[in-house]
Design a protein that fits this description.
The complex is a heterodimer. Chain A folds into two domains: 83 residues, Phosphorylase Kinase, domain 1; 120 residues, Transferase(Phosphotransferase), domain 1. Chain A has seven helices and ten strands. In chain A, the strands form three sheets. Chain A has a five-stranded antiparallel sheet, with helices on one face. In chain A, strands 6-8-9 form a three-stranded antiparallel sheet. The radius of gyration of chain A is 18 Å and the shape is globular. The N and C termini of chain A lie far apart (64 Å). Chain B has two domains: 155 residues, Nucleotidyltransferase, domain 5, CATH 3.30.420.40; 160 residues, Nucleotidyltransferase, domain 5 (2-Layer Sandwich), CATH 3.30.420. Chain B has ten helices and twelve strands. Chain B has a five-stranded mixed sheet, sandwiched between helices. Chain B has a five-stranded mixed sheet with strand order 8-7-6-11-12, sandwiched between helices. Chain B has a two-stranded antiparallel sheet with strand order 9-10. In chain B, a hairpin with a 2-residue loop joins strand 9 and strand 10. Chain B is globular and about 60 Å long. The chains are: A alpha+beta, B alpha/beta. The interface between A and B is large, with 38 and 50 residues.
């Protein structure tokens, strides 16, 4: 049996940088003959090495664990091939499809509503299984065929708390209103419908009330 | 022909007035800053009394130093909010009086948008991701669909409050940013503190509690000042980086009082470089609260016909910047 190499720099040196996120470089390459992406949390120069190293390692391990948890909850996530905490690297399946961010504006409002309904339903599945995603932006969800794949669990954690679930929803609202203002109303309405269908009216109302509390805590906010 | 606008700022500790021209020249920018007693923060009423006492002189200086005759002032702009009620009212009264006596329109300006627009004017940034960090704000902002939108913010304390409340715990008077920056330069000993990034948002309350506890537990002020800066600045830099990566914009600007901090500037510079984006820093003199931010934004507004009848010119202590229509950028 061939011993697996640790996916250090050498392994993805021939790969192609396809996305530079805030946290990690996404490099498309090959691993054991498979088309994969390397998610490498490179050291951030602006953060003290001692702080930076701890954050990168913690998030890498947690992401691996949360990808697994999401699948148990019935939400699609990339297939994980290898984890290397030392270099803060994950080797994962390459998910082909369109990020929600790139779909918006390109598909009809009806289709957009369907996509956001699914989005809401899948987020509800995570929440119902006690998972807070932590980074629900439209860049972190990919439409593949008829379903959605959540591709970034870097800030996810186990949580049943209403507050954490509301923070998740708040980020979606913030992103949709902030970056896709033209479609915000329809998209959010569909999202909420999908969410409440799964968790039920009562829980949905509780989450929304908590969301309102959080928004009220915001600076200079006047929430109706 | 050039137009001239006089702007009045009085949202918090600073009472300031400025005359700017329609082509973006700052002709004067006089100010008076209320100083709180050691170990305490701004007392809103006392700050307003300080503003009252200095208002006439600051306004006269702004007009005089600009060299512009009163009858050439086209409009008077004032910071309508957000801010401390008693302080805002002093500025509003002064602005109304001036507008009435000069017979020119009164223009309401959102203080936070003033920071952003002045920063863009002075640095040449066109369409940046904005990190607004001050005693009143910690927000990551981007222009889209006719408004400045908030992509991320602090869920509790602002960065300025974090530094001030930490500094006051040690016995300094607000604002404490400069004293903490100096102290931090004397240490390289990082003490572990909670790092709290939630999506695009940050939370500082746990960091403040833990930092105070370290001080109370006998750690040196230098070490804790260094550690709180490293932690808090890395948090806001990370969420700004997230907004930058998410929007793919090519410019970043830091505005607000905490923009004066060099360590924050260095972190943001390194971050922007990673994304081949350009970092703009508002010049020190104009990064904090000043009349010029109100005067310049007032010009942008009056040019689009935005003014307010005197009888409606109340102040708005709570006035989120993402509720303001920005016709001059659409």
């Amino acid at each position: 049996m061939t011993r697996l190499k640790s996916p250090g720099e050498a392994d993805y040196a021939s790969g192609r940088l396809i996305y530079r996120g805030a946290e990690a470089d996404i490099i498309k390459g090959e691993w054991q003959g498979l088309d994969v992406v390397y998610k490498v949390r490179k050291p951030l120069e602006y953060r003290l090495p001692i702080l930076d190293g701890a954050i990168r390692q913690r998030r890498t391990l947690r992401e691996a664990e949360m990808i697994h948890q999401a699948k148990k909850a019935g939400v699609e996530a990339p297939c994980l091939y290898h984890v290397d905490p030392a270099s803060a690297t994950l080797v994962m399946e390459f998910v082909s499809g369109d990020r929600l961010r790139d779909l918006i504006g390109r598909i009809s409002t009806v289709e957009l509503a369907q996509v956001f309904f699914m989005f809401g339903r899948d987020v509800a599945r995570l929440h119902a299984s006690g998972i807070m995603h932590g980074d629900l932006t439209t860049a972190n969800v990919v439409r593949r065929g008829k379903s959605l794949v959540f591709i970034d669990f870097g800030l996810s954690m186990r949580s049943e708390r209403l507050e954490d679930h509301a923070v998740d929803i708040r980020l979606i609202k913030e992103t949709v209103v902030g970056a896709h203002s033209d479609f915000a109303l329809e998209a959010l309405e569909a999202f909420y419908k999908g969410y409440s269908t799964l968790v039920g009216e009562t829980r949905f109302r509780q989450v929304m009330r908590q969301l309102q509390n959080i928004e009220r805590r915001g600076r200079y906010a006047r929430v109706a | 022909m050039k137009d001239f606008v006089l702007g009045v700022e009085s949202t918090a500790h600073t009472f300031s007035a400025s005359v700017v021209s329609s082509d973006g020249e700052i002709l004067s920018n006089s100010k008076s800053v209320y100083k709180s007693p050691e170990g305490s923060g701004i007392h809103p009423f006392e700050a307003s009394q300080s503003h009252l006492a200095s208002a006439a002189r600051v306004l006269a200086d702004a007009l005089h130093n600009s060299g512009i005759p009163q009858d050439e002032i086209r409009a008077v702009a004032y910071a309508m909010g957000p801010g401390l009620g008693p302080c805002l009212r002093v500025g509003a009264v002064a602005a109304r009086t001036l507008a009435l006596s000069l017979g020119v329109p009164l223009v309401p300006v959102n203080h936070a948008i003033g920071h952003i627009e002045l920063g863009c004017l002075l640095t040449g940034a066109k369409d940046p991701i904005v990190l607004l960090v001050s005693g009143g704000h910690t927000m990551i902002i981007s222009f889209s669909g006719g408004k400045w939108r908030i992509l991320g913010e602090s869920l509790d304390l602002t960065l300025g409050q974090l530094l001030d409340q930490f500094g006051r715990h040690h016995g300094f008077a607000s604002p404490c940013g400069a004293a903490i920056e100096d102290a931090a330069l004397k240490s390289v000993n990082y003490l572990k503190l909670p790092y709290s990034v939630k999506g695009n948002d940050v939370s500082f309350s746990g960091l403040l509690t833990a930092s105070k506890a370290l001080l109370d537990g006998g750690e040196t002020f230098y070490d804790v000042a260094y550690s709180i800066q490293e932690t808090a600045f890395a948090m806001v830099t990370e969420v700004t980086e997230r907004a930058l990566a998410f929007t793919s914009k090519k410019e970043v600007i830091i505005v607000g009082g905490v923009a004066a901090n060099r360590r924050l500037g260095a972190m943001m510079t390194a971050m922007a470089k990673r994304h081949s984006s350009k970092l703009y820093m508002t010049p020190l003199e104009y990064s904090g609260d000043c009349g010029a931010q109100i005067a310049w934004t007032g010009w942008l507004a009056i040019e689009r016909g935005i003014e307010i009848p005197i009888e409606d010119s109340k102040v708005r202590q709570s006035w989120r910047l993402d509720t303001v229509e920005i016709p001059w950028r659409s």
